[in-house]
Amino acid sequence: MTSAALAAAATAIQDESAQVAELYLQKALRLYQMAQRSKGLYARWIPSGSLYPSTSFYDDLAYAATWIYAATLDENYLNDALTFYEQSVQTEPHSNPNPY
Q1: CA distances for 74 relative to 8, 43, 45, 49, angstroms
Q2: Is the model more confident about 45 or about 80?
Q3: 81-89: long-range contacts at Cβ-Cβ below 8 A with a sequence spacing of 24 or more?
Q4: Does residue 72 contact residue 9 with C-beta atoms inside 8 Å?
Q5: Which long-range contacts (CB under 8 A, 24 or more apart) does 57-62 make?
Q6: pTM (2 decimals)?
Q7: What does the pLDDT look like over 46-80, one tens digit per residue?
Q8: N or C: which end of the chain has fewer CB within 10 A?
Q9: Contacts by residues 57-61 (CB-CB < 8 Å, ≥ 24 positions apart)
């Protein structure tokens, strides 16, 4: 989610401060890459995890990939977003199967 927020912020401020937007985008990309390498449910690792027992992380990866795609227009991120969304629908029965 932090990766998505940074990519969204980069998109929002691009016209006002390209240098800051690029910094945000680079941080978003690094977080996204870290999340790709360390897939898992955060609730297993923090004491308060039982308060919000997440059933999937794919929705978060899809959200981040969507915002990174918006910031970069790199279709690889759009493809990631669609793939992760499909995986989210498969693991979270309450999800809408329509990615659009």
Answers
A1: 15, 31, 33, 34
A2: 80
A3: 84/58, 84/59, 85/58, 85/59, 87/56, 87/58, 88/56, 88/58, 88/59, 88/62
A4: no
A5: 58/84, 58/85, 58/87, 58/88, 58/91, 58/92, 59/84, 59/85, 59/88, 59/92, 59/95, 60/1, 60/4, 60/35, 61/32, 61/35, 61/36, 62/88
A6: 0.82
A7: 676 666 666 678 889 999 999 999 999 999 999 99
A8: C
A9: 58/84, 58/85, 58/87, 58/88, 58/91, 58/92, 59/84, 59/85, 59/88, 59/92, 59/95, 60/1, 60/4, 60/35, 61/32, 61/35, 61/36
Which amino acid type is present at position 54?
A: S
Encoded tokens for 1: 């989610």
Two tokens at 82?
């669609």
For tokens 């989610």, what's the residue? 1
